[in-house]
Amino acid sequence: MDEAMGRHITNQAMLLQLVELRDAMHRGYYMIDTFRYQHHDEEETKDEDLANCMFGREMEAQLVINFLLHTDRHEGEDLGLLPIVGPGQVGKTTLVAHVCKNERVRGHFSKILFFSIHSFTNDEVSNFEKACATEHQNHMSNSNIDRRLLVVVEFIGDLNENAWNRIYRASKQYVPSGSKIIVTSRSDEIVKFGTTRALTLKYLSHESYWYFFKTITFGSTDPKMHPRLTQLAMLIAKMLNSSLIAGNITACLLRDNFDVHFWGKVLTFFRGYFQRHISRFGEHPIDLICQNKPAHVARMTIPSEEFMVQHQNECSLEEEVPQITFKDVMFGSVKPHEKFEVLTWKARIPPYYSRVYTCEIQKLNTTASKRKRSTKNGSTLC
């Protein structure tokens, strides 16, 4: 299976067959693990840096590679443009980064340019135009070199059609013939600008997500040797709503604390925290964070405090990022003050983006609840 997925396959029907086979394999592994570790739990009751791997996107990666390597002598003046759309934290950036690391892709294009557009401000669009103009000048000074560019544009905010038209005009004006553009966005609005069918990413199925979570949690350790830990990991994975970032943070935490008691404590913490958040606000906090909406986050080591994730942004390699991590605040003893930033994700492959959350500490009002518990029928309990 792995060998087949590693080949350059241009036949889309064969790709679909391989994906169906892969999904069936994940379902089979999941059913086996479910049966095995539920059975272990019954017996126990009676007895009283994979972090940057791309998982489950082999077909999608091959479709992108096929688009990039395909040449059409009659394609006209329009640059080939592939839109990739999907919800937040579904893996769009990771997919493109892995495709750009492919040897055939790197050999096909003389240079790969990465741009991140947050709010379609005039400065952002102007910087894009200047970068394209600079590349055009470099191309003219080396006219004997056959240059093809791959331009990757990540749209973080809502689409501004006028700003997009400026971006595309600059691409057509300055980018050499034979170049390609990949655009990633949460908005389906970008689909209409594609010269080929858009690629839509969805969250991994529960079975595929479990396979991913198990792999990065246990690493080279055989889960069969730790049935109780594996059962706890399955229960924890179910609560993470297929979030890749939440999965990586949690897997790192569990790997660093390879202990049944600790994993059970994490499970109990997640269960209580997620239930309270849904009861108070009507939505799962991970869903809100994936939509870049404010969410309350509980702290496992300091129950009297929680912090609010207000918004998130991606930082380039040149930008300074905080030393404190999301894991440090949620699960550690780090005590940030008032408003602060945390590093949530740091990619180790180009374009080396980091994801940073802006947060604020909030004290929980426990005085009233304590007073209520200590008083009964007007008298103080000792």
TrEMBL record:
InterPro entries: NB-ARC, P-loop_NTPase. Residues 75-219 form the NB-ARC domain. PANTHER family: NB-ARC DOMAIN-CONTAINING PROTEIN (PTHR33377:SF92), OS10G0134700 PROTEIN-RELATED (PTHR33377). This is NB-ARC domain-containing protein.
